[in-house]
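Quarterly update from the structural biology core.
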Amino acid sequence: MDIETDDEGNLFVYIKNEKHQLAVFTGHLYKLRMRNGMPILEVDGVRMHLVKEFKNPLEYSEEIVKKLDIKKNQAVLDTCGGLGYTAMAAAKKAKKVVSCEIKKEVLTLAEYSPWSSDYFKNKKIRIYNENVYEKINDFKDGEFDAVIHDPPRFSHAPELYSADFYRKILRILKPKGKIFHYTGSLGKRKGKDILEKTAERMEKTGFKIKIKDKRLQGIFAVKG
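Predicted structure, tokenized:
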């Protein structure tokens, strides 16, 4: 598939010899923009990837997988699939990766991106176009060894930062199961940023916090 970019990094694809921008508008504008040799997802102009200190989004995902120390016989839940970079990184190590992505628009863009091809072709990866908050109820107790939880910012999906959802994650994790929870660095109030507040909520729910990673803007924890 032929992909072109313009001076601003917007991506275009040819379909039946007609040029189309890789963008979808359904009340919100979802589009791909090239960043350091790989597409990133933007929603209403807001970047959905942490790339400031990383070569590209895949490097960010690979660092998370490395720190989680995922083994070849393990199962991983990727809660918010996006363009599939996290699932692809996890599948290099794990036996099975289950990836949930609520937005069909995002999956459509990923399907047109050669950089996401393994997300759909890798037999280790199972994709659900569903809301993980509900879909997680279908998974078995202790089904997963690790969870990579990279939700939208708190204001867009507060339920994915809730004690109720953390209890759901604890149920599907094996004993000593691990989680990486991206929080971002916004939302500082009353002397505590969102990372600190999220860590407190996770601890009260039953997680044991291992690392508060400022560079990855998230939390590594284990099932307590």
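Helices lie at 57-68, 85-91, 104-112, 117-121, 132-135, 163-172, 194-205.
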